[in-house]
Design a protein that fits this description.
By secondary structure, the protein is an alpha+beta fold. It has helices at residues 5-16, 39-48, 93-100, 111-117; strands spanning 22-27, 31-36, 51-53, 56-58, 76-84, 105-109, 120-127, 135-141, 144-152, 155-156, 159-160. The chain has a five-stranded antiparallel β-sheet. It has a two-stranded antiparallel sheet with strand order 1-2. Strand 3 and strand 4 (56-58) form a beta hairpin. The radius of gyration is 18 Å and the shape is elongated.
Amino acid sequence: KPAPLQDLRWFFCRVWVLEKDFKIQERPKNRFVIAFDLKRDRNKVLRGGPWRFNQAPVVMQEYDGIALPHSVALDALFFWVRITNIPPLFEDKDTIRDIAAIAGRVIELDDKLFDTTGKIRVRVSHALYKPFFLKKRVKLASEIEEEIGFFFENLVDGRALPRME
Protein backbone atom coordinates (compact mmCIF):
# COMPACT_ATOMS: atom_id res chain seq x y z
CA LYS A 1 0.00 0.00 0.00
CA PRO A 2 1.50 3.38 -0.95
CA ALA A 3 2.58 5.59 1.92
CA PRO A 4 0.96 9.03 2.20
CA LEU A 5 3.56 11.72 1.60
CA GLN A 6 2.75 13.71 4.75
CA ASP A 7 3.04 10.56 6.91
CA LEU A 8 6.48 9.82 5.47
CA ARG A 9 7.64 13.38 6.04
CA TRP A 10 6.36 13.52 9.61
CA PHE A 11 7.91 10.15 10.48
CA PHE A 12 11.32 10.88 8.99
CA CYS A 13 11.47 14.37 10.52
CA ARG A 14 11.12 12.68 13.88
CA VAL A 15 13.55 9.79 13.23
CA TRP A 16 16.32 11.51 11.29
CA VAL A 17 16.69 14.67 13.47
CA LEU A 18 18.38 16.76 10.77
CA GLU A 19 20.05 20.16 10.99
CA LYS A 20 18.14 21.56 8.00
CA ASP A 21 15.04 20.67 6.00
CA PHE A 22 14.40 18.10 3.29
CA LYS A 23 11.82 17.76 0.54
CA ILE A 24 10.04 14.63 -0.66
CA GLN A 25 8.58 14.27 -4.16
CA GLU A 26 6.29 11.38 -4.91
CA ARG A 27 7.03 9.45 -8.11
CA PRO A 28 5.20 6.59 -9.88
CA LYS A 29 5.50 2.98 -8.67
CA ASN A 30 5.63 3.88 -4.96
CA ARG A 31 8.97 5.68 -5.29
CA PHE A 32 10.04 8.96 -3.77
CA VAL A 33 12.84 11.41 -4.41
CA ILE A 34 14.21 13.06 -1.28
CA ALA A 35 16.32 16.22 -1.54
CA PHE A 36 18.23 17.48 1.48
CA ASP A 37 19.17 21.10 2.13
CA LEU A 38 22.50 19.98 3.62
CA LYS A 39 24.86 17.38 2.20
CA ARG A 40 25.79 16.46 5.78
CA ASP A 41 22.13 15.56 6.48
CA ARG A 42 21.97 13.50 3.28
CA ASN A 43 25.10 11.59 4.29
CA LYS A 44 23.73 11.04 7.80
CA VAL A 45 20.56 9.48 6.38
CA LEU A 46 22.29 7.36 3.74
CA ARG A 47 24.92 6.10 6.19
CA GLY A 48 22.57 5.70 9.15
CA GLY A 49 20.09 3.15 7.85
CA PRO A 50 18.53 0.87 7.21
CA TRP A 51 15.27 2.67 7.88
CA ARG A 52 11.74 1.33 8.28
CA PHE A 53 8.33 2.89 7.79
CA ASN A 54 5.12 1.10 8.84
CA GLN A 55 7.12 -2.05 9.64
CA ALA A 56 8.57 -2.24 6.11
CA PRO A 57 12.18 -1.51 5.14
CA VAL A 58 12.75 1.69 3.21
CA VAL A 59 15.17 0.93 0.40
CA MET A 60 17.31 3.97 -0.36
CA GLN A 61 19.86 4.64 -3.04
CA GLU A 62 21.92 7.67 -3.99
CA TYR A 63 20.28 9.49 -6.87
CA ASP A 64 21.89 11.95 -9.27
CA GLY A 65 18.69 13.70 -10.36
CA ILE A 66 19.42 12.86 -13.99
CA ALA A 67 18.34 9.24 -14.40
CA LEU A 68 14.64 8.46 -14.39
CA PRO A 69 13.69 7.45 -10.83
CA HIS A 70 12.20 4.12 -11.96
CA SER A 71 15.57 3.15 -13.50
CA VAL A 72 17.41 3.30 -10.17
CA ALA A 73 17.90 -0.20 -8.74
CA LEU A 74 16.33 -0.57 -5.32
CA ASP A 75 17.48 -4.08 -4.53
CA ALA A 76 19.70 -3.72 -1.45
CA LEU A 77 19.80 -2.36 2.07
CA PHE A 78 22.89 -0.77 3.58
CA PHE A 79 24.13 -1.98 6.96
CA TRP A 80 27.00 -1.44 9.31
CA VAL A 81 28.23 -4.91 10.27
CA ARG A 82 30.48 -5.73 13.21
CA ILE A 83 32.67 -8.74 12.56
CA THR A 84 33.95 -10.84 15.44
CA ASN A 85 36.23 -13.79 16.05
CA ILE A 86 38.88 -13.04 13.43
CA PRO A 87 42.25 -14.22 14.81
CA PRO A 88 44.67 -11.29 15.26
CA LEU A 89 47.07 -12.68 12.64
CA PHE A 90 44.32 -12.18 10.02
CA GLU A 91 43.21 -8.69 11.07
CA ASP A 92 44.68 -6.91 8.07
CA LYS A 93 42.36 -4.70 6.03
CA ASP A 94 42.44 -6.85 2.86
CA THR A 95 41.48 -10.01 4.75
CA ILE A 96 38.80 -8.12 6.65
CA ARG A 97 37.30 -6.91 3.36
CA ASP A 98 37.37 -10.47 1.97
CA ILE A 99 35.58 -11.81 5.05
CA ALA A 100 33.13 -8.89 5.07
CA ALA A 101 32.08 -9.80 1.52
CA ILE A 102 30.17 -12.71 3.09
CA ALA A 103 27.82 -10.11 4.61
CA GLY A 104 27.37 -8.15 1.36
CA ARG A 105 29.14 -5.88 -1.10
CA VAL A 106 31.72 -3.98 0.94
CA ILE A 107 31.28 -0.20 0.82
CA GLU A 108 33.77 0.87 3.47
CA LEU A 109 35.75 -0.22 6.49
CA ASP A 110 35.35 1.89 9.63
CA ASP A 111 39.06 2.73 9.65
CA LYS A 112 38.84 5.12 12.59
CA LEU A 113 37.26 2.48 14.86
CA PHE A 114 39.69 -0.21 13.66
CA ASP A 115 42.78 1.97 14.03
CA THR A 116 41.87 3.19 17.54
CA THR A 117 40.21 0.13 19.12
CA GLY A 118 40.95 -2.86 16.90
CA LYS A 119 37.21 -3.48 16.54
CA ILE A 120 36.07 -4.45 13.08
CA ARG A 121 33.07 -2.70 11.52
CA VAL A 122 32.25 -2.51 7.82
CA ARG A 123 29.46 -0.96 5.79
CA VAL A 124 27.91 -3.32 3.26
CA SER A 125 25.21 -3.32 0.65
CA HIS A 126 23.14 -6.43 1.37
CA ALA A 127 20.98 -7.73 -1.49
CA LEU A 128 17.32 -8.02 -0.49
CA TYR A 129 17.01 -11.51 -1.92
CA LYS A 130 19.99 -12.96 -0.01
CA PRO A 131 19.88 -14.49 3.48
CA PHE A 132 21.70 -12.93 6.42
CA PHE A 133 24.66 -14.93 7.72
CA LEU A 134 25.10 -14.24 11.41
CA LYS A 135 27.87 -16.87 11.71
CA LYS A 136 29.90 -18.60 9.06
CA ARG A 137 32.81 -21.00 9.17
CA VAL A 138 35.63 -19.45 7.12
CA LYS A 139 38.87 -21.00 5.92
CA LEU A 140 41.56 -18.42 6.69
CA ALA A 141 44.61 -20.48 5.72
CA SER A 142 45.39 -24.04 4.65
CA GLU A 143 44.71 -25.52 8.09
CA ILE A 144 42.99 -22.64 9.86
CA GLU A 145 39.21 -22.39 9.98
CA GLU A 146 37.26 -20.12 12.27
CA GLU A 147 33.60 -19.44 12.93
CA ILE A 148 33.24 -15.72 12.18
CA GLY A 149 30.38 -13.69 13.68
CA PHE A 150 28.46 -11.00 11.79
CA PHE A 151 26.36 -8.52 13.76
CA PHE A 152 24.16 -6.43 11.45
CA GLU A 153 23.44 -3.15 13.22
CA ASN A 154 19.71 -2.28 13.25
CA LEU A 155 18.69 -5.84 12.45
CA VAL A 156 16.30 -7.47 14.93
CA ASP A 157 14.73 -10.88 14.36
CA GLY A 158 15.87 -10.76 10.73
CA ARG A 159 14.25 -7.36 10.09
CA ALA A 160 15.85 -3.96 9.68
CA LEU A 161 14.77 -1.42 12.30
CA PRO A 162 15.29 2.34 12.45
CA ARG A 163 17.67 3.81 14.97
CA MET A 164 15.82 6.29 17.16
CA GLU A 165 18.08 9.09 18.40
